[in-house]
Amino acid sequence: MASGKLHHRIKIQKRNHSLDMYGQRQDSWEDYLSVRANVRPVSGMEKLASMSVAATLTHTILVRYRKEFRFPLKVASMRVVFDERVLDIDSVRNLEERNRWAVLNCVEGSVDGN
Known about the structure:
By secondary structure, the chain is mainly beta. The chain has one domain: Bacteriophage SPP1 head-tail adaptor protein (Thrombin, subunit H, Beta Barrel), CATH 2.40.10.270. It has two helices and six strands. It is globular and about 50 Å long. The model has no long low-confidence stretch (mean pLDDT 82).
C-alpha cells in the first residue's frame, strides 16, 4: 500500500470520564490522534459477507500502524471523526501482522450521540 493512498485526514477520539459537581459521571470525547487515512465505504457484497461478524459494518479505514493499536485496544472507548461524520470503531486489524498498516472496521453513527 502506497502512502499516497492516504488522502483523508481523520481524528481518533477517546472517551473521557469525569465527575460533575454532584458526583455524577460525565462522559465526553477528546481528540487523541490526528492521522492520514484511506476511508472506504463497505460495499453491499462485503456487508453480506461480514454479516456473521458485524452486520452493521459500514466503513474500513486504513492507517499507518501505531503502538496505540496494539492489543488490547479498548475500541468501545474510541471513535473516528471523518469530516463531520462519527464512525464507531468495531475492531482493529494489524494488516499482515507486520506493524505497518492497521485496518479500522467501523460503524457509522455514534451509539450515545455525543
